Amino acid sequence: MKNLTKHIKTILLYLVGLSILTYLISTIGLTKITDAITSMSIGYLALVVLLYLVFIPAGAINVWLLLRTVHGVRLSQVTGPYLLSWAVGLFGLGKIGEASLIYFMKRCGIQIGHTSAILLADKLISFVVMLILAVIGILRFLSLSVALRSLSIVVVVGVIMAVVFYTARGRYFIRRYLLGKYAELFTGFAVTNRALLQNYRILLLNVVLTLARFGLATLIIYVTFLGFGYRINGIDILLIYATAQLLSFIPVSINGLGIRESVSVYLYTLIGVAPQIALGRSLIGLSILYILGTITIILLGSR
Questions:
Q1: N or C end of the chain: smaller count of CB under 10 Å?
Q2: CA separation, residue 137 to residues 20, 190, 255 (Å)
Q3: For the whole model, what pTM was predicted?
Q4: For residue 299, what are the CA distances in angstroms to 33, 48, 49, 58, 81?
Q5: Is 105 exposed, middle or buried (0-12, 13-18, 19+ CB in 10 A)?
Q6: Which whole number is the average pLDDT over 251-273?
Q7: What is the SS3 assignment for 66?
């Protein structure tokens, strides 16, 4: 019964995301969007695909560097499970699907507690970087009051998460009331956290690599717009990307589907981009991601 409820919820979230996306398409006009997409240069499209092939696996480096603080794992051992968890995350609830990396690394002999701590640290670093950029983006495109409200909500959530995961009492609460008899599976979580906090240079390097990935994402979007004949300021692209990514964490659809695209279209129209071009860019990126995600699951899922 519980699995049935979960499946129904997933289907409903997919429908919500598709409904938002469908409404957005119908509002702008399907013909306009189709004309915009077909007008893109094939050469630029090929370059965008190549950039995605670099961008997607690059995240494995962040996880690998953090994991090496407690385990002598090779980058090649991390890349496959990382790619598979990324692909599963595309079809999972919000960002929860990416937590499947814990399971895939377990199959490689890495303890659940180690991977859990590493994944949490990596996501928190990415989230903080994204939050800072998104707040700047909100200030740039919207208003100070919206930025302050967004920041206050996220800060409260962040403090709660820090207390829960990085204090002895917080971890005791998780072990005692949430994990129960499964707590032993997460042995090594606290040890890994201490190792990470002692290796501040690795954490700093992770921040730098995270910024580099945001820069690569910006380049991908910039090249896509060039394919449409638009030359957009890179800083604006970076801020819009971060803002849309932050709002995609709102769990009202699968992986932020529809929310991210709506935010992107609105913000790009504020800087003079035609809505059909802005949405066309999003749909191209979305299509590439899901095609690559499906291929990844087919190739790696059976291993």
A1: N
A2: 23, 35, 21
A3: 0.83
A4: 32, 22, 18, 18, 12
A5: buried
A6: 84
A7: helix
